[in-house]
Design a protein that fits this description.
This protein starts with a strand and ends with a helix. With 623 residues, it is of the alpha+beta class. Strands 1, 2, 6, 7, 8, 9 and 20 form a seven-stranded mixed β-sheet that branches.
Length: 623
């Protein structure tokens, strides 16, 4: 069977649970992963894709820390794109289209290869809590399994309720039952709970579509990948996605079913994701728009199943079908399964510490949609952080917390526990005030040394990072020190529409010009000789180009981050009595008491706490 006592038990085997279980076991802790269905480990419940705007940075950060999401994504990818290449490097975001079945299979293979990780298929219906500390879980069969720490990653399964038109039924996702029991116990323990909603579009038969009426969306010609390791390779063969549009006719057909929509007739009252609205919500909110984009995404290499991205809906199946048939290319569409909405329980994340441990129950951690987030990547990163901190807590080691200038993961966790969320939280580059520092290209430089200290990744990974760091710095210095011949440089500048020079100058200076690319500078004789003498890969050259072109921005953000750290270093004692400081605003006293920030910097980010409140707090603390 399995051991009845573990260091860590992870409940749920989605993206959060899989990363939590993997990192816990890889750090040497005996770990049990409990799930209601072992066949759906790492399941892509919604779109068959990983990464995207800001999310791609998170996947790279997970990989840099020794997580598995990047490796699994690379091994199951059917298309790769680097988004936002027309913008600065802080905005570049990798994204893969994935084979849904291979993705889940690869997750299971990766997890089964970890010696200290056990698996058990059953529903967890309760926690064993003794003296304010979690010490295990109870299964639906009455089995009690003890542990030193428990990580809950229940996804959309906690009292999940699926809606299709005027029908609804319990379920965590299509074809799978909901999880019951845990919410009630947590509420009894003093936790505040709420309800959220998400949705998914229909899946259709790709053989019934007319792609000639759609716009092809191919992947990049020169592909990259998520993982910095040598365990995966760049894609050499890819599958196209396609794009089409809705129309006024489609919108009118959808409106005919609004009176039967749970979104509009009051059946659904919980809040859905603002940045991924249903098609009926888009039509209602943006009535002036006569069309919306539909992305037609293949579900894998071999299957004909297609994901209709942009057509998320909970309208009755007959309305979905009738409207979709009026979309260009979908005239003869055949459904595999209709779209649906799902409501589920979550727990406002202000009830957590930065480690994702709950404030009310020791050694209990929450990760993923239970915290009010949406998205595979956000969930996976939380799972990893919860797993790391659960192991370090039971070993009585220092907590592992990433700051806002260190990682998007740090921004995500800090946003959740400091500001909370009343709608499904999604990461964007705009949420990160230091996004020039938190680029997708340097996640390994930022985080792999930390992961080595944690014992998650090998010294070999650290050597790759150190070479990348040293060689890129060496070449940047070469460009600063080496002068070009202006007679050789001027023909290049003229061809690029850039002002000619009248004397020799440093390569760094001319490379800084926006019109001059890395490929351009490679044609200059001194650079050509340097590259012939030094075997530099694309990752190193990318670092060089970013540092040359954005040196001023990078330095400015580093200075701003240093200022932030001064307030981060001003610690607030535990259980601080903010209500006794009468010169604070009433709202600040209430918010500070609820969140219980651990630093003045965190306090300054709480909604409703003004700069004058922070000044009062600093004076009261003798600063």
């Amino acid at each position: 069977m399995f051991s009845r006592e573990y260091d860590v038990i992870v409940v749920g085997a989605g993206h959060a649970g899989s990363e939590a279980a993997a990192v816990s076991a890889n750090m040497g802790a005996s770990t049990l992963l409990v799930t209601m269905n072992l066949e759906t480990i790492g399941q892509m419940s919604c779109n068959p894709a990983m990464g995207g705007i800001a999310k791609g940075q998170i996947v790279r950060e997970i990989d840099a820390l020794g997580g598995l999401s990047g490796i699994v994504s690379d091994k199951s990818a059917i298309q790769f794109k680097m988004l936002n290449l027309s913008k600065g490097p802080a905005m570049w975001s990798p994204r893969t289209q994935n084979d849904r079945m291979r993705f889940s299979e690869e997750w299971r293979m990766q997890l089964e290869a970890i010696p200290l990780l056990d698996f058990y298929q059953e529903m967890v219906v309760g926690l064993i809590v003794e003296g304010g500390k979690v010490v295990g879980v109870k299964s639906s069969l009455g089995i009690e399994i003890r542990a030193k720490a428990v990580v809950l990653t229940n996804g959309t399964f906690l009292n999940g309720l699926i809606h299709i038109g005027d029908k609804n039924f319990g379920g965590g996702r299509a074809g799978e039952r909901a999880s019951t029991g845990i919410t009630g116990q947590l509420v009894d323990l003093g936790f505040e709970s709420g309800r959220m909603k998400t949705g998914t579009p229909p899946r259709v038969d790709g053989r019934s579509l007319d792609y000639s009426k759609m716009i092809p969306q191919p992947g990049d010609v020169n592909t990259s990948k998520f993982s910095y390791s040598n365990l995966t390779t760049n894609l050499t063969n890819q599958r196209d996605c396609h794009m089409t549009y809705t129309s006024p006719e489609v919108h009118n057909l959808l409106r005919e079913g609004f009176d039967r929509s749970p979104m509009f007739n009051g059946r659904i009252q919980s809040i859905g994701p603002r940045y991924c609205p249903s098609i009926e919500d888009k039509i209602d909110r943006f009535a002036d728009k006569d069309r919306h984009q539909i992305f037609v995404e293949p579900e894998g290499w071999q299957t004909c199943e297609v994901y209709v991205n942009g057509f998320s809906t909970s309208l009755p199946e007959d309305v979905q079908f009738k409207a979709l048939k009026s979309v260009a290319g979908f005239e003869n569409v055949k459904f595999f399964r209709p779209g649906y909405a799902i409501e589920y329980d979550y727990f406002p994340p202000t009830q957590l510490k930065h480690t994702l441990e709950t404030k009310l129950v020791d050694n209990l951690y929450f990760a993923g949609q239970i915290n009010g987030t949406t998205g595979y990547e956000e969930a996976a990163s939380q799972g990893m952080m919860a797993g790391i901190n659960a192991v370090r807590k039971i070993r009585e080691e220092e907590s592992f917390i990433l700051k806002r200038d260190e990682a998007y993961i740090g921004v995500l966790v800090d946003d959740l526990i400091t500001k909370g969320t009343e709608e499904p939280y999604r990461m964007f580059t705009s949420r990160a005030e230091y996004r020039t520092l938190l680029r997708q290209d340097n996640a390994d430089l930022r985080l792999t040394p930390r992961a080595v200290d944690l014992g998650i990744v090998t010294d070999e990974a650290l050597k790759r990072v150190e070479r990348k760091q040293n060689e890129s710095e060496k070449m940047v210095q070469f460009l600063r020190d080496t002068s070009y011949d202006f007679n050789e440089m001027n023909p290049l500048l003229e061809s690029k529409g850039s002002k000619k020079v009248t004397q020799n100058d440093k390569l760094f200076k001319v490379f800084s010009r926006p019109q001059i690319t890395l490929d351009d500078i490679k044609t200059i004789s001194q650079v050509k000789e340097y590259l012939e003498e030094n075997d530099l890969n694309d990752d190193i050259l990318e670092q060089v180009e970013v540092h040359v072109k954005y040196a001023g921005y990078i330095d400015k953000e580093k200075n701003n981050a240093d200022k932030l750290h001064r307030l981060e270093n001003v610690k607030i004692p535990a259980n601080y009595d903010f209500k006794s400081i009468k010169s604070l605003s009433y709202e600040a006293r209430e918010k500070l008491t609820k969140v219980q920030p651990v630093t003045v910097s965190q306090a300054s980010r709480i909604s409703g706490v003004s700069p004058s409140d922070i000044s009062v707090l600093l004076v009261h603390m003798g600063r």
